[in-house]
Automatic annotation (TrEMBL):
CRISPR (clustered regularly interspaced short palindromic repeat), is an adaptive immune system that provides protection against mobile genetic elements (viruses, transposable elements and conjugative plasmids). CRISPR clusters contain spacers, sequences complementary to antecedent mobile elements, and target invading nucleic acids. CRISPR clusters are transcribed and processed into CRISPR RNA (crRNA). Acts as a dsDNA endonuclease. Involved in the integration of spacer DNA into the CRISPR cassette. Pfam families: Cas_Cas1. One of its GO terms (biological process) is maintenance of CRISPR repeat elements. GO terms for molecular function: DNA binding; endonuclease activity; hydrolase activity; metal ion binding. Its EC number is 3.1.-.-. This is CRISPR-associated endonuclease Cas1. Gene3D superfamilies: CRISPR-associated endonuclease Cas1, C-terminal domain, CRISPR-associated endonuclease Cas1, N-terminal domain. Mn(2+) binds at E163, H228, E243. Coiled coil: none annotated. Its cofactor is Mg(2+); Mn(2+). Keywords: Antiviral defense, DNA-binding, Endonuclease, Hydrolase, Magnesium, Manganese, Metal-binding, Nuclease. The keyword Nuclease applies. Belongs to the CRISPR-associated endonuclease Cas1 family.
Amino acid sequence: MKLVVDGFGKSVAKRDNQIVIKENGKEVDYFRAEDVSQILLTGKGSITFDALTLLANHDIDCVSINWKGYVDYRLTPPEKKNVIVKKEQFFALADKRSGQIAKAFINAKIENQKAVLGTLAKSRSKDEFLTAQRDKLNYYLDKLDGLKKDTSDNLRSKILGFEGQASVEYWIGFQHVLDEKWGFNLRSGRGATDPVNSLLNYGYAVLQSEMWKSIYLAGLDPYCGFLHSDRYGRASLVFDLIEEFRQQIVDKTVLAIVNKNQVDVDDFEFDEGQIRIQDKARKLLIAKIMDKLNSKINFNDKKMSYEDIILYQGRLLGKYLTGEKKNYVGFSRRW
C-alpha cells in the first residue's frame, strides 16, 4: 500500500511497529509498517528519527513531490547489495543488450499509445480520425523493429527520433478528445501553462516514485539508463522504465477526470508563470492514480496490480542483464 501524507502541519511518527500520522500534534491515523510499501509526501510537515528507522527496516521509501510536479527528494533504505546486477548493467552499455533494452522501452511506449488511441476511438463509435492516428503509429513500430542490433549509444538518436515522431501523432489524437476550454496544444513537458499538462506532469511525478521503488528492489542503478543518456544528477533508468507506464496509468486517468468533468478550469491557477493545481483537483488526481496502481489486470496469465507489474518489470530487467532471462520485453496492453 502506498501511503499519501498530504496537507500542512502533518508529521510521521512511530509507535511500536506502526507508522503514525499526526496533524498539529494530534494522531489522525496509523498503519502497520508491513502493510506500507511507500510514503508519498505532498505537503509540508516532519518525520521523526524513530519513524525513519522503522521505514528503513521495512524497505519503505519516502518521496516528496512539489506543486509543480517535480520530485524534490527521496529518502531510502540502504542500497541493495547486489553488485552483480549493477556490474552487468554497466557492462551492458558497451554491448548490444543496451540497444535491445532501449528499443524495448520505446516499443512498449508506442504500443501503449496505440492502445489509448484505440480505446478512445472504440468508445466514440470507431472515430475515424482517432483510428487513423492510431494506425500511423505502426510505421514507427516497423522502423524500430528494422533497426540493426547495436549499442544504445549507436541507436539512441534513431530510437528517440521515432519516439518523438510517434508522440506527436499520439498527442494530436489526445488533443482531439479534449474540449477547447482546456487550452491543450500538445504536450509541453515541464513548466506547464495549461491545466491538462499540469495534471500530466503531476501524475508522472507520482508514477515516477513507483519506478524508483522497482529499480531499488531489483538492485539496479537508477542513474545508469539505456535510452536516456547519462547526465549528472539525472536518474536515467527511472525515466527509461516510466516510458512503459505513462499512457495506461496517467494519460488515461487524466483524460477520465477531465472528460467526466470531475475537475474544472477553476481548479487551476497561475503561479510563477506556471499552472498550479489546487488542492481539490490534486487530491483527486492522486486518489485516482492510486486506484489505478492498485487495480488488477491480466498479465502473464494471472491477475496482477499495476504496482506489482512495475516491480516485475524491474526484476525482469535485472534478470535479463544477469542472463537469467533471454530477453527483455516492455509492458504494453492492447487496449
